[in-house]
Amino acid sequence: MIYSLKGTLTYAEPSFAVVECSGVGFKCFISMTTLRTLPSVGKEVSLFTYMAVREDAIDLFGFYDQSELEAFRLLITVSGVGPKAAIAILSVLPPDRLSIAVSSGDVRSIQLANGVGKKTAERVVLELKDKMAGIGGASASVVEGIQSVATSGNASEAVEVLVSLGFERSDAATAVGRLDKELSVDEMIRAALKTLSPQ
Fold first, then answer.
1. Where does the pLDDT of residue 151 fall: very low under 50, low under 70, confident under 90, or very high at 90 and above?
2. Is 32 helix (H, G, I), strand (E, B) or coil?
3. In this structure, are residues 124 and 80 in contact, taking their beta carbons and an 8 Å threshold?
4. What is the rounded distance in angstroms from the CA atom of residue 165 to the CA atom of residue 188?
5. Sign of the C-alpha dihedral, residues 18, 19, 21, 23?
6. Quick check: pTM over 0.85?
7. Position 96 pLDDT exceeds 90
8. Taking a C-beta distance cutoff of 8 angstroms, is the pair 72, 61 a contact?
9. Confidence band (pLDDT; 50, 70, 90) for 20?
10. Which of 94, 108, 162, 187 could be joined to 172 by an S-S link, Cβ 3.0–4.6 Å?
11. β-pair type (24-29, 58-63)
């Protein structure tokens, strides 16, 4: 198993990068998130990797840090999510945002990934809800606050109102999750809107 690569970045495009190590170029499939962190071609780069071995292919996937690799490993444990789908999800949701989306049940944000339908996104939420807390720097307190929204009637109602106003469920749940659960629904909505709406 190749755990990481350190060498010269010789090529990069939205779906893959090539890292040359001691004269050998390794093609690594990458997310858009990793692509944005890469240096310019010709510079030194380090990537964490995952090697997927199938009957007809051996593919290498590259990640900018260990949290993205960890999120990828969790995603591919979900029924119906292969390595390419996991990369697509990480392209639209970096690990911290994915952790928040899963915790808040934000299926719609996960569906933004190319080739990921509603049923697959729902499985990601269902199967990873208890596994993704804190991945990618999403603080445990934020995730706990989001998870507590589901058990608080007022908080849950406030999130639904915010979603109906057009906010993403994960953003709404994050904003409401930070509030005192004793507040009324209206108070929660007003306080969350101050956080969510640009000044």
1. low
2. helix
3. no
4. 14
5. positive
6. no
7. no
8. yes
9. very high
10. 162
11. parallel
